[in-house]
Specification:
Shape: globular
Order of helices and strands: EEEEEEEEEEEEEEEE
Helix content: under 10%
Distance between the termini: 50 Å
Mean pLDDT: 80
Strand order of the largest sheet: 1-2-3-4-5-6
Length: 179
């Protein structure tokens, strides 16, 4: 099987039969994880290579969130978000992969009067910086999820799309300012 994308990198064909539309992806070790909106599931893609043609295998990662806007790997877990909810996998065991999603318990919603839509999340040290239309939140990720601390740190900086903020290699977060 081989992987090909169209000019927008949004339609991926795995030669041999399956086509799916992916909206976000991230990588852990030798596996790529992509959200397949066609199947409403996170897929594991293995067998790829930077050096040329390779066999590619697609597998659904069990019960996963059915809608996500973004996904990333941080502190031995995969994280994904949709609207104001952040999902996370169980912690990776030594030699294992972050593929156990318990969508009934492994999530938290941002504390707010409304339901702020998350547009982007950045990681610096032990902290997630969550960019929303309601302000900036931090999540201190230390120890078990019951010990994580979620706080709103700024309500004046708001984002309206994932393109309103970015992070540099020096861990500086930039924001688009609308006048």
């Amino acid at each position: 099987k081989s992987l090909s994308t169209d000019a927008t990198n949004s339609v991926t064909t795995i030669t041999g039969g399956h086509t799916f539309d992916w909206s976000t992806a991230c990588m852990y070790r030798d596996r790529i994880y992509a959200f397949c909106s066609t199947d409403s599931a996170i897929k594991r893609l293995t067998g790829w290579s930077f050096t040329g043609a390779s066999a590619l295998t697609e597998t659904t990662c069990g019960t996963t969130p059915t809608a996500i806007s973004g996904m990333f790997f941080f502190k031995a877990r995969l994280f994904a978000w949709y609207n104001n909810r952040i999902y996370f996998t169980d912690e990776v065991t030594v030699g294992g992969y972050p593929e156990t999603w318990n969508t009934g318990t492994n999530f938290f919603d941002l504390p707010s009067d409304g339901s702020p839509t998350i547009h982007n999340i950045f990681t610096i040290d032990n902290t997630l910086y969550v960019m929303t239309e309601d302000g900036v939140y931090t999540v201190l990720v230390y120890g078990s999820p019951t010990n994580w601390i979620v706080r709103k740190i700024n309500e004046r900086i708001i984002t309206t799309s994932k393109y309103d903020s970015a992070i540099s290699a020096d861990n500086i977060i930039f924001f688009k300012i609308n006048n």
